[in-house]
Amino acid sequence: MRIKGMAHPPLSSAKSDAELDLSQRDFMYLHVDGQIVSASIHDIEVTPSPGKLPPKIRFPSGWLFVPEQADEVNAYLKKHGQKGLLGKLESNLTAILVSALLIIGLTIGTFTHGIPWFSQQMVDWVPDEAHETLADYVLKSIDEEWLLPSELPEDEQARIRERFYAQVQSLPLTKFQPQLEFRKSGDFPNAFALSGGVIIMLDEMVELAESDEEVDAILLHELGHIHHQHVMKRLISSSLVSATVALLTGESSGMIDTMVGAGVFLMQSGHSREAEREADEYAKASLITLHGSSEPLAKIFERLHESAMDIPEWLSTHPDMEERIEEAREP
Question: In what residue span(s) does the Peptidase M48 domain sit (predicted)?
């Protein structure tokens, strides 16, 4: 039995018409360009192709043969015990399912554990200038698209800043000195931290607080995010995902815009439950150091919880607020 196809010489992209002689049980004979190339079936290398595509047969001498039709060659190889990995998988449903589950598991593990772990390792290597530059870009972006200038009196802003900065001096050092900014959103009470130590306090949050200590609690919570570098860690994670997609698709343009956009999104969408708990613990410990009690944190959380009752559930970034209130009051 002879199979027609194309043959490629060793280390060459040239090709010639050829025939593969399968008349012998244990040997193959390739007839090409007036010469005969032979090899034992056990010495050849078979690269299977998916579906009905013909396999590629490589001889020890380097010649490569690609048959025109796959069926006869595949039947011969199967009969004589030559079967590639892909062919084995195609005939083994269990192996296919296990392989698929393994790939899915590795993919999920990469995104749920691998990337967060790598982000944790990378964050300390990010230059301070990168934190500050990114914060400037993000602040400029949200000022243009979302936030409004603060309407708090200048003397009130100065008083809150002075009080906060004085308290920071009594606490353990953070990587970045905080920079407190005031804005108005015309929306829900909120405050958030950017990379580089920038904290944004909205007028609505100041108005919600009923004491200076409650304002302290919110600012110390945001300082906790800065202390743990939550913003940059999440941004690194997001950028790693984007970079992975860019490598797979070959599209790497606009990475700076992507990072700024990710920074805005992360700022608006809130932090993970673990990050919020770490920031809560930082605020709680700081309040006890400064005021002897963490009750102001529980109080402002209660007010935030009440004000959030009218927010649709899909907009709420802190569905575990009742649990956080209880933890704020625990000794």
Answer: 156-330
2-82 folds as PH-domain like (2.30.29)
d(CA 39, CA 22): 11
Helix pair 212-227, 295-307: axis angle to 10 deg:
90
Strands (E), the chain: 2-8, 16-21, 27-32, 35-40, 45-47, 56-58, 64-67, 148-149, 179-184, 191-193, 198-202
Question: How does pLDDT run across 241-272, given as a tens digit for each residue?
Answer: 666 556 555 555 555 455 545 544 544 444 57
Rounded CA-CA distance 216/67 in Å is 77
Q: Which of 202, 135, 209, 199 shows the shortest CA–CA distance to 168?
A: 199
Give percent helix, percent strand, percent coil of the chain, each to the nearest 5. Answer: 55, 15, 30
Distance, first Cα to last Cα, the chain: 86
The per-residue pLDDT for range 91-146, each reduced to its tens digit, is 566 777 887 888 888 767 766 677 677 777 777 788 888 888 888 888 899 898 88
**C-beta neighbour count of 47 within 10 angstroms:** 13
